[in-house]
Each structure stands twice: as C-alpha cells, then as structure tokens.
Amino acid sequence: MIAILRIGLVAIAFLSLTLALLPVQLLALGFGHPVMRRLPRWWHRVMCKVIGLKVKTIGTLAADRPLLVAANHTSWKDIVVLGSVADVVFVAKSEVRRWPVFGWLARLQRSVFIEREQKRSTGVQVGDMAARLASGEVVVLFPEGTTSDGNRVMPFKTSLFGAASQALALTPQGRVTIQPVTIAYIGIHGMPMGRFHRPVAAWPGTVALGPHFLRVLREGALEVEVHFCSPVVFDAASDRKQTARIVERAIRRTLAAALRGRQPEET
Fold first, then answer.
1. Are 152 and 142 spatial neighbours (Cβ–Cβ below 8 Å)?
2. Is residue 34 one of the residues assigned to a domain?
3. What is the rounded CA–CA span in Å between residue 158 and residue 143?
4. How many domains is the chain built from?
5. pTM to 2 decimals?
6. Domain that includes residue 82, residue range
7. Does residue 67 or residue 1 have the better pLDDT?
8. Which of 197, 249, 257, 250 is nearest to 225 (CA)?
9. Is residue 264 in some structural domain?
10. Is the pLDDT of residue 254 over 90?
11. Is residue 267 part of a domain?
12. Residue 165 lies in a domain
C-alpha cells in the first residue's frame, strides 16, 4: 500500500511540474531564449527530490568552453542526476526519440540523437555535436554506448569523440576541453549499496524499463555521487583514440574508488 501511494505521489508531482514548465520551455525554444538551457536543470532538481535521488557532487564542472563531458552510463537516472547539477544537452541513441514520455522529454531538452548503426550519417551527427560545442553548450556523451550493471565501466566507443575534432575548426582558440565525469550509485536507505542492491540503481539493456522504473519509485532513497574529474585539453595535436583512453581510465579509476567508499587519488 505504501509503495502504491509513493508511486501515485511521484506521478502527480511529475505531471504537475511538467505541465507547469512545459509552456515556458516551448516558448523559450520557439524564440531561442537562453532560459531553454536553464529550465531543464530546475526540472531535474525537483524530480531528483521527488524520486528520492540524493545527489552529491565532488569537484566542479570545468569553466572552459567548448566543453564535452564524457560520463559512464548506468541507468536512465543518469540523465536526471547530471541534468540536476549542470545546464547540459545529452547525446542519445536515436531510438530514445520514440520512447514514451522519455523521448518527448529528451526532445524538449534538445538532445542530439545518434543513429549508431548508420555509419553514413555519423559525420552529420558529429557535426551537429561540434556546432553545439562551438556555440557554448555543454554536451554530455556516454561513450560506452549502452548502460552497464553499475559495477564497472564498459569499453568506450571512440567515434563520437570526433565531435571534439570537428569543433576545433569552429573555435578561435583551437582547442576543446573534455571532462571525464563519474556517476556512482553508492547508497540506499542510508546504507552502503553493495552488489545485491545494485540492480535498483543499474538498468542494463537486458532489463525491461517498466518494472525497473516502478522498482526505483518504490524504493527511493538512492545516494549518488557525481565526480567531476580533471579536464583534458584536446587540440590539433591530440589523438582521438588516445584521448578517449585517457578519459576512460579516469572514469574507471574514479568509479572503482567511489564504490569502495574511497576518494580517488586524483579527480
């Protein structure tokens, strides 16, 4: 009964908040007003509290622009978590556009949709990301290309780091900052989250979204750490694949330390 009541309250809060902010966001998008970048963060902050996500940040978002954020990917909750701490746009796989509710919200936040299986369109999509970076927007990329079980970092797909290469020609300073960001789900109901409870936080691709979503709403009280690691400067002399490996190692090291309750030597 308590679980049903909680799900109902979350649904009411979601509808009330979304319907209240929707007209403002649509107008901002129509007129190109800067509030279109800030409004999603307000929405995500409130939804974190409603869902029961307690977010703690370690470090700060880099001030340099253009800025490409590369983060590990555990769940749909990563979007809400990162969206609550920074004004960002996300890179998402094209099928997300067609998802009920989630796809609609992603379009409202001006996500960049990528056709991962269509190699011919990759150049155009990477060009769109580069243009967003050059315009001063913070673009979030999940280089694993899929969600994990939350206990590890999957190997990075390096092709979309090409957006940093293309953005170089569009920026006067001739460089792009890439910042590794680690999202670690570390606690549940005030207790450390071990492997037994990790399925509450993680949403690997083999798990149906509906049951997982309802379980998260029933549980609530998840503690999440967002680690902003040391930025990496990418310029004309940088190697895309090598840079991707550096970023991957930083995220992998930070996640391992966070899940063990330790502070990484360098973030």
1. no
2. yes
3. 7
4. 1
5. 0.90
6. 2-259
7. 67
8. 257
9. no
10. yes
11. no
12. yes
